[in-house]
């Protein structure tokens, strides 16, 4: 019994949060050098990974579709924390960091994650199936929120540049919250069955859900991990921006790095679901995260902009608008039949590759 308890407290997911908190306490506010920056960066990556792990444990205890909702919100909290810390702690012009990160998250999940899931699922199961009602509802909401938040600011005339005026920003924030709130009610209450995998409840190989005690422990460790992510992001933010400048990449690459870091553990969870022929769960994770990323991040940044210096750039450029429109059209064609193969996965991954290439060489 003692050995069992000891081993349960020596698991990596239990050890990492307090270690990351210790690193944060010892290095926060200290003058950074190569060694300290490396230690902080490793602790930051570990904190992100373990935070998503504990969110998955809590999500598994709650069950679908609430589970993917919890995971999406946890990832969004991490994303907002990273953005705010980089905007307040980094040098240079960070007015477009929120836009770049949210757009990168949109492209990563709608092309990278979706494409990888369809490719893996198609190779393993030839044809994968999902419920059209849930996926199309998510995509419609996502398209509306993305257009209102990332496209419309480039065409308004109340303020110079691709920005919103104060009232316009407030409207966009409220509209995003309303759309996301209605979507959550539909996903978890009124039309919950739309988001459950086809054949749910029929001979599925689920792992046993964690105990209530383990779920509560994971919730506590999740909160500790989120604190570590925010604090360590502020500590390493100058180094991240310095590295991007050193390689001569555009400032928007910082947003891509943040999105890739935050979404990497969730990508693993989505691909695992696709390997088990549960692409509906993969879509819940991918498209739900993109919707949460825009629907929650933009309002949070809008509120934070009251205390931030300078304008908040939200409108995309022409190249990014083309990529966004192409993604929405291709994703619509992908999900409309309710079944897909590796062909659709290859198309999405090709668009994702184009996004990454053009982000570095605009």
Automatic annotation (TrEMBL):
Organism classification: Bacteria, Bacillati, Actinomycetota, Actinomycetes, Streptosporangiales
Organism: Nonomuraea soli
Protein name: Ca2+:H+ antiporter
Record has Transmembrane helix as a keyword: yes
Cellular component aspect of the GO annotation: plasma membrane
Topology in the lipid bilayer: Multi-pass membrane protein
Database matches in InterPro entries: Alkaline_pH_Ca-Antiporter, NaCa_Exmemb
Keywords: Membrane, Transmembrane, Transmembrane helix
Transmembrane is among the record's keywords: yes
